Amino acid sequence: MDTILVVNAGSSSVKFQIFSIEGDGTLQRRIKGQVDGIGSRPRLRASDRTGVPVADRAYPIEAVADVPAAMLVAGTWLRDELNINPIAVGHRVVHGGPDHANPVLIDHGVVERLARYVSLAPLHQPHNLAPVRTILANFPDLPQVACFDTAFHRDHDALADHYAIPRQLHAEGIRRYGFHGLSYEYIARRLRQVAPKVASGRVVVAHLGSGASMCAIRDGRSVESTMGFTALDGLAMGTRAGQLDPGVVLYLLAEKGMAVSTVQDFLYRDCGMKGLSGISNDMRELQESSDPRAAFAIDYFVYRIGLSTGMLAAALQGLDGFVFTAGIGENSAVIRGRVADRLSWLGTTLDAGLNASNAGKISASDSRIPVYVIPTDEELMIAQHTLALVVKPKTPAQARERMS
Ligand code: ADP
Hints:
Elements: E1 3-9, E2 14-21, E3 27-36, E4 43-48, E5 53-58, H1 67-82, E6 88-93, E7 104-105, H2 108-115, H3 125-138, E8 144-148, H4 158-161, H5 167-172, H6 181-194, H7 196-199, E9 202-208, E10 212-218, E11 221-225, H8 246-254, H9 260-269, H10 272-277, H11 283-288, H12 292-316, E12 321-325, H13 326-331, H14 333-342, H15 352-356, E13 371-373, H16 378-390, H17 396-403
Parallel strand pairs: 1-6, 6-8, 9-12, 12-13
Antiparallel strand pairs: 1-2, 2-3, 3-4, 4-5, 7-8, 9-10, 10-11
Helix pairs in contact: 1-3, 2-3, 6-16, 12-14
This protein binds adenosine-5'-diphosphate.
């Protein structure tokens, strides 16, 4: 059985999935797992396609001290115990810089180029590239593909790609990149199947997870995003403030005497829902809390989604559909209901029963704007891109199938 390994590596965990390539060229998810607690309490956990656990084992801290070690643990387990030898590996890489509008086959030159973007995404890019290097060193003939969170947004109009700063800085790479692109690309494709007419129009997608952003999509292509140079911009998130006057950062540096690294930590880890509520970064906990600070944080989250929808609808010059996705978007009927209420001036009315059941289409039959819940699948997107770059389609039908 030919398989593809999908890797999503962060600072303290390596998540992985195995997809089999079926006879008709489609992909089937077989294994979903992760090595987490890297450098603290390392643990390998995995389940099969039905969610039944197939591994749960702890490792001594020195055995899995870093991301490369975690990759080796996962790879060894797949190979030695499940007899899985993937024909290719697809990686989630957060930053493709200005030049990568598509996934790319990796060689040493590509790794070095992508390493240049570490300063653009210091918390993610080094960890994304670590397993790439490990595999390149240990299995130089195994094809690897980098799939970027920025790629889907790369053909934004220049107006959406610029900050109003001297052009030289834009040329250096200070641009509005946008993120969560693999999620939006998947949603755009799914929407073509779920609601083709809406998908060919003007759609706002809200990816609401621990990280949260929104994207304006016209006929399947991204035209605007709430995120910009980094994944700090836009909506308030679990621990990130979202849109913030840069003057606040200057104040923290100059008046509070905070070191740059302290400000970075603060902006990524201590703001957003966590900072506002003083209780939790987790939306479930905030919804369950009776503390007024939790209620305020939720109000703020919803308010900013409303503001951003106005901005994105202006970029699209109208709105034909709205999609919720990611942890909060897929699971929280409360947040979806609150957002739809805020957007009622645009014409969103939910069917309470459909919303409560996380149905695919949750708007009422008389809603001017149809509203959908579409579970995202960034890993499938990565597997599809990897397959497309590594294995040529055998028939035109297969080629079409892959792109749908
Ligand atoms: P990420 O992949 O960015 O880490 P997820 O997409 O998994 O994040 O989303 C995590 C968020 O989803 C958390 O804030 C969590 O509380 C929220 N979430 C998950 N299920 C629910 C639910 N049933 N109700 C409200 N929030 C939920």
